[in-house]
Write a structure and sequence with these properties.
This protein is an alpha+beta fold. It contains nine helices and eleven strands. The radius of gyration is 23 Å and the shape is elongated.
């Protein structure tokens, strides 16, 4: 229960820099992506019907959530019903209900009360990222250039957020892209992904927009462009763009078959 979690680290960074909007946004980004354990009043009656335990502090209401089962147990001090949900789903559940979030109360350094308006903002921001359609194909681009240096700050977060694409063999670069409909002809920030299955494009485009949303960078938008792995434009993109270095997937391990009973002299078979 004492091991530091990603939420602990993000919360500590936010608390250490209370005037830093970027640190605060990163905390909410981690909150949205984290699996959280919601303390319930009773066992769920159906798959989509849960009743969170509500903490009432002089009229201010908070749902109680924890980022590990151990922390929930440490708070409840009893066998308690709970539901495991991503933070984004909890934000959507609480939005507009005037209920805030009590995170890890009294059991972790990331203990915090998050007001209802902050949860509503988080739900709205995530919904906006979903509603924007991804730009497929070449997106009407005329040319690609080296990215603005400020975009480099997005690379580590994109590598983590889009790691599933890397596991599928996809590649990605941050670039500047000039579009056919660009009135001023200036290059716009863009993420180019190659070798992504079409079915995965919407979720990856949403994820890239969320990275920008929670980065705190003064970049209004990041276009997401998808190209085939065989596109002739990739050579120029690779030469000028900043490649996203996805984490290498852990090698698959195959468990050795169990030894037949009696083959180990130190572990004779049990008689029944």
């Amino acid at each position: 229960m004492n091991a530091e979690t990603t939420l602990d680290a993000a919360h500590a960074a936010m608390q250490a820099n209370p005037e830093d909007d970027a640190a605060r946004l990163r905390f909410y980004g981690v909150l949205a992506d984290s699996e959280l354990f919601v303390l319930l009043e009773r066992e769920p009656e159906g798959r989509d019907a849960i009743s969170p335990e509500i903490l009432d502090l002089e009229g201010d209401l908070f749902a109680l959530v924890f980022d590990s089962e151990e922390r929930l147990s440490g708070f409840a001090r009893r066998i308690a019903p709970y539901a495991a949900l991503p933070g984004r789903a909890i934000a959507g559940m609480l939005a507009g209900r005037n209920i805030g979030l009590g995170l890890n109360l009294g059991v972790a350094p990331s203990s915090i009360l998050i007001p209802p308006e902050a949860m509503s903002w988080l739900a709205e921001a995530l919904a906006e990222a979903v509603s924007e359609a991804p730009e497929a194909g070449q997106g009407g681009t005329l040319s690609f250039t080296a990215p603005d240096p400020a975009l480099g700050a997005l690379a580590p977060a994109l590598a983590q957020k889009l790691a599933a694409a890397g596991a599928m063999g996809a590649r990605a670069w941050l670039v500047g892209a000039r579009f056919q409909d660009g009135a001023d002809g200036a290059a716009k920030p863009a993420l180019v992904m190659a070798g992504v299955p079409e079915a995965a494009e919407p979720s990856l485009a949403r994820a890239s927009r969320e990275v920008l949303l929670f980065s705190g960078l003064a970049i209004p938008e990041l276009a997401t462009l998808f190209l085939p792995a065989t596109s002739p434009r990739l050579a120029a993109i690779a030469a000028t763009g900043l490649e996203i270095r996805f984490p290498k997937p852990a090698p698959a391990t195959v468990a050795a078959p169990p030894a037949p009973p009696g083959s180990d002299p130190d572990k004779p078979p049990k008689l029944r």
